[in-house]
Amino acid sequence: MTTTVAAYAAPGAKAPLERTTIERRTVGEHDVLIDIHFAGICHSDIHQARAGWGDAIFPMVPGHEIAGIVAAVGSGVSKFQVGDRVGVGCMVDSCGECAPCRNGQEQHCVRGNIPTYNGVGKDGEPTYGGYSKQIVVTESFVVRIPESLPLDVAAPLLCAGITTYSPLKRWGAGPGKKVAVIGLGGLGHMAVKIAHALGAEVTVLSQSLRKKDDGLKLGADHYYATSDRETFEDLAGSFDVILSTVSAPLNFGAYLGLLKTGGALVNVGAPEEPISLNLFSLLGGSKILAGSMIGGIAETQEMLDFCAEHGLGAEIELIEASRINEAYERVDNSDVRYRFVIDTATI
Hints:
The chain contains 11 helices and 17 strands.
């Protein structure tokens, strides 16, 4: 048996999202039924709803920044109970058996993790995301949202938070380290907050100085416009870590020139177009060009606890579901500060 749930879905590539209904599976022994209260709009949602990253499954219900309340649990669930404040991020299952899964890196499951939407579950049915009233997820892919974090500002942490926290931790952002964040958007603004809370000296590299006041308020120590050629001259060899959060192709050679010897440029943005790179920009100074993809479930919980401890939530604009298509256009135009969050009560 299944349950019919209201949702917003893209019926096809580039088609406007529209209100519809979907079927959620019956709560199994190890499942958690969540009443979704808030769902963030990630740029990934837009890429996938428009099939910008390749083949996609339609109709598609996007949304992998989910915050809500447990409504029911299966008989074998031990971690959660009805009434708990919980979240679901970018994946809802994995094989659980391969080395990455056993090491807490479910996002790198050898057999492929099962994404929260635009994927196929172990039951052979397509997965549907958070632009909906409810979701059913196996308990091992549900995380607890601390009481001190309001659910609406916590929702974007399930993608934007972990996507930036994981590489900042891995590459040693902290006291005595200089970190640059490329782009002050949905990902970038959380990167600034987290890097600052970790104790690093933080610089924002943005196309213009339009958001400089915001960046400094969020925790940046410095703010530079990349449209100014002098920026790349003045900051040459300055940074231990640069985190690129933008979804557009960059001149990576120029940004690699801003790293100290042995420094790392870590990319979490996912542009649809390929990039080109002169490898000599890596060889000189033994620079590192790396990538990072979200984080495992345990690390996601660690990130939420860290954000709660430091009072970090996303800067959001709360919208009704009827404004999703408008929000997509505004994200494309960089007209949001800094994350749209859907009040799912309006679906």
